[in-house]
Amino acid sequence: MIWLLFILAIDPRYHTFDELAHELDSIALRYPEITVLDTIGYSTTDSIPIFAMKISDNVKVDEDEPEILYVALHHAEELLGLELCMYMIDELVTNYHLDSTITHWIDEREIWFVPLLNPEGHSVVMEGIDTTWRKNKRDNNNNGIFDLDYDGVDPNRNYDFYWTEGGSSDPSSEYYRGPSAFSEKENRALRDLCLARNFVFCNTYHSARTGLGEVIYYPWRAAGYYSPDYPFIRQVADSMSKLIVNEVGNGHYLALPGTGVDGRARNWIYGICGTFCYCVEICTTTIIPGWLVDDVCLRNSIGSYYLLNRVNSSGITGCIYDSLTGEPLDAEVVINGYYDPTLPPRMSDPTYGRFLRILNEGTYDIEIHKSGYESLYLNDIVVEQGEMTEFDVLLQKKETNNIVPANNPEIMIFPNPTRNAMTIYVANPSQFSSLRIYDICGRVLKNFESPSSSTLIWLGKDDIDRDLANGVYYVIGQTNDAKIVRKIVINN
């Protein structure tokens, strides 16, 4: 009788694993042009599949598009995260080509979901064995029996980033961090996905049995210092939190820096991968009546979707190429003043050479480094509110100082047409006595004088810092022997 009461305590509104697998498979079959379903790993003890679904147009191709990740159910009892992921997946796929905003997201983004990271712990809850279970089912004492008072690892304390600084070393603790960092297959599955992709944002969904609910935690505040991207991570968290109305309807979620640097998902995903990662506590408890679930999902989806817009708003982006071959490069992009040398370098994507850094409105000095290439220093790069500053970069190999003969000066422009920034590459700059930008009437708008650097970043402004209107302009470089003319187009 007690067993039945436990089972009945889990409302049928919540997905079982079999229901989740069937629904994801059905979506992949019904929407093959925009969805791909993959198994990214298996659980530690019961070898239950861990699913990931990608949503995008040209979904089977890795396009040059920003990627966003949503992950749920590190902790087995926190069922609402799975429901939120499935709510969002359904809303996205069923409204493609019906809702212009959703269509734009799917066409211009690569959106990933891992709805159930801890499937074997989830089964403990759904089967009514223990509806407050957090961990997976690792057999800590190796007795071949699942012991509620001793077994299991907390997946959200098992990441290899200051692993010993968080969680507990006691296997009986519900915060047990495991015998070693990344000991759990669940964590390795998410690790491998994050390292293989280039996620800009990630939300990990939780719901609080203890501690604060309706809060968004972000990396990090610890021992008197903050994460290097703290102002930018915080701005995103603040904006996202203000979009989520709280349960009682008299305010919105809070945004707070996570205290400490330890083996939690948000710290590893940000610290190692450079992804702005958030822990969203989507409710004030873990399991609520089924009739309330959709309301939680609706309110939280609004904040979650914000990331799909923010990814192309306020920051810098562009591609890095070899100046001789035009091949894309994976190079380190440093934002001066927002850099921690103890963390892995923030690299451009090796396939496209794409870099994308989320920033606030302001002016930044940027360095670009790659072994074997001349470093590039770009000063006073302006980021406007709500706009991406776009520019491509050509890096020159150290042993190749002249990419064209000395008697054949050249000017190359990337991208063209441009929106609000372009890279002007000048081969052999010492040969040019002047470099100017003219309008179609022949008026000088921007004067670079004698260029001292082979790479110039132009933000589409004239000499008195006014934005130029859309239209055709000309870059003209003057040498002793010739005048080199290149047409450019501004199309904001």
Terminus-to-terminus distance: 68 Å
CATH topology of the largest domain: Aminopeptidase
Task: Assign a percent range to the helix content.
Answer: 10-25%
What's the CATH C level of the largest domain? Alpha Beta
**How confident overall, as mean pLDDT?**
92
Counting helices, strands and paired strands, the structural category is alpha/beta
What would the principal axes of the Cα set say about the shape? Answer: elongated
Strand content: 25-35%
Tell me the name of the CATH homologous superfamily of the largest domain.
Zn peptidases
In DSSP terms (H or I, runs of 4 or more residues), the helix count works out at 9
Q: Give a short account of the largest sheet.
A: 9 strands, mixed
How many domains make up the 3D coordinates? 2
Count of beta strands: 23
Low-confidence segments: 1-8, 400-407
What is the CATH architecture term of the largest domain?
3-Layer(aba) Sandwich
